C-alpha cells in the first residue's frame, strides 16, 4: 500500500513538473513572438519626495498586452524571461521606451527636468559585456539627460560581483547614470558589500513597510535601513506605502521618498504625463501636504 502511494505521489509530482515545463515553453515562445509586435511596454509608478511634498519621479515597470490573455504583470513574465535569457532584450525595450517618455516630458513641461526615472535591471544583465554600450546607445537615442536616470538592481545582485559587472558599473557611473539598490533587507548582503556598491539610493523592501505599523521588528528594520542608507550618503525610498499610518511613521523616521498604492498604482504613460503636467502647473498631491 505504502509503495503504491509512493508511486502515485511520484507520478503526480512528475506530471506537475511536466506541465510546468510545457507552460514555460509556451510563455517563452509567446514572449519571442510578442517582442517584435510591441506587446511589452512600461507602466509608471510615481515616487514622491517627503521634503518637497511633491512628485519626484517614476519607476518604470514592465507590462504585457497579450493578444489572447490580455494585460499581464511581471510575475507572469519575469521568471520565464530570466530562465531563457529573454530578460536582456525585454529590459532593454523597457529602458528604451521609459527613457523616451521621460525625455519627452522633460522637454514638454517646465520644471520637469528634476524628475528622476528608475528602471529595473535584471541581475543577469550586470555581467553582460555589452551592457554599458547598450545603455549608452539608449541614452543617446532617447536624449534623456543621464542624470535623470537611475537603474535599480536588487540587493541579492550586489553580492555577485565579478570583473565584467564591476567594469559595467564603472562605465555606467562615468556616464552620469545613478544606481539604486532595490528590495533592500530581503537579501543577505553585508554592510561592507553595500558600502562598496556605487549606489546613490537604497529602496526599503515592501515587506517591511507593509508591516511597520503592526510589527515592532519591521519598524526597527525600516529605521535601521534608513539610518544605514543615510550614513552611506544614500537617499532612501520606501516602497509599498499603502496607509497614512505608514506614511506618518516614515516621515518621523526621516525617509526621503515614498512610493505605493497610498498615492498611486503603476499607470499608463498618459496618466503619468498628466501628473507631470499638473506638477508643472503648481499642483501638490493632497496626501502629502497634510502630514
Ligand atoms: P520592484 O522593482 O520591487 O517593483 C515594485 C513592485 O511593487 C511593483 O510590482 C509595484 O506595482 C508593486 N507595488 C508598489 N507599491 C505597492 C503597494 O503599495 N502595494 C502593493 N501590494 N504592491 C506595490 P510589479 O509591477 O508587479 O513588479 C514586480 C517586480 O517585477 C518588480 O519589483 C521587479 O523586481 C520586477 N520587474 C518589473 N518590471 C521589470 C523590468 O522591466 N525588468 C526587470 N528586470 N524586472 C522588472
Ligand atoms: Mg524596482
Ligand atoms: Mg522593489
Ligand atoms: Mg520588489
From TrEMBL:
Residues 24-280 form the EAL domain. It comes from the Bacteria. Transmembrane segments: none annotated. One of its GO terms (molecular function) is catalytic activity. GO terms for biological process: regulation of DNA-templated transcription. This is Diguanylate cyclase/phosphodiesterase with PAS/PAC and GAF sensor(S). It comes from Maridesulfovibrio salexigens (strain ATCC 14822 / DSM 2638 / NCIMB 8403 / VKM B-1763). The lineage of its organism: Bacteria, Pseudomonadati, Thermodesulfobacteriota, Desulfovibrionia, Desulfovibrionales.
